[in-house]
Amino acid sequence: MKKRRNTKTVKVGNIKIGGMNDIVIQTMTTSKTKNISETVSQINTYATAGAKIVRLAILDKEDAYAIKEIVQQVTVPLVADIHFDYRLALICIKNGIDKIRINPGNIGSEEKIKKVVDACKLKNIPIRIGINGGSLEKDIIEKYGVTSKGMLESAKYHVRLLEKLDFYNILLSLKSSDISKTVEAYLAASKEFDYPLHLGVTEAGTLFGGTIRSSIGLGILLYEGIGDTIRVSLSADPIEEVKVAKELLSSLGLYNKPKIISCPTCGRIQYNMFNLVNKVEAYLESKDYDITVAVMGCAVNGPGEAKAADIGIAGGKGEGLIFVNGKIKRKVQEEYMFDELISEINDFVKSRKLN
Ligand code: SF4
Predict the structure, then answer these.
(1) Which of 210, 231, 251 represents a domain boundary (last residue)?
(2) Cβ–Cβ under 8 Å, residues 130 and 233
(3) Is 302 close to ligand 1, i.e. is its CB under 6 Å away?
């Protein structure tokens, strides 16, 4: 993987984005923000799942005023997603929001933009400019079409509006539903700006298709050292967005979570391995262990194929072999495989902490 590109650091509540800080996982609520109890419950659920920042859609004044109560009941910083209406931004800022997503070019007169900028300056609140391939400015489309070049030009236009007012507390996203355009736009933006980049493929699709598309698009960029915060957009429960983001970052060594190695199984399998590996995955989901666990289909190739794991199990007919650091430790009966493997994992984590 290439060296991480250094960007400016911005602060969203107590979370730092950019520079050499960890890449921050975000998601977005699906509730009506004015439905305070539902919104709070969603935010807390996503935070427990691993989201470090949560964004809310602000459609009207009621949504904006709800921020005041919501911020008091959650622990993660919140972002207000606003289109066009600068007054909503001002209400959110006044009521304790930590970041605003609004495109200055859509706000209207310079006077209105200045009002938002001044309010943000006063509270040290950053603004994310969110370029979306599907809603570029008319004149830009006429000149460049809906292209990555057009997306970059749009970003430049919006950035200029803020910089003109001496505002530099900026993050940028350049999302398209087309993966190539998304990647090209971010590559170009990373050369043009040193503001932190918020990565995403917009309208990526369903849990299955969207995960693949986001992984390709975001994976290429992250591999290039580009990206400071990510949101995986899926037509699915936001918890899934968080899970996919964690797995994506972890696959590139950018996030610490337990890794599971498992074989695809073949004709040598003699036990219900899928059931075991799914249970192990569910158990490790909420753990922050830095451990690699292998769940293998047989003892013929299993231990060898899973040498990279700290702990593994290779199942056979009615029993399984547990191995630690590549060496067989003991035999367990099939019905106890899950419990015994988990107990070995916990012992391993404990002993590593002691050493
Ligand atoms: S570990 Fe065993 S069951 Fe799994 S793919 Fe390899 S040979 Fe087949």
Answers:
(1) 251
(2) no
(3) yes
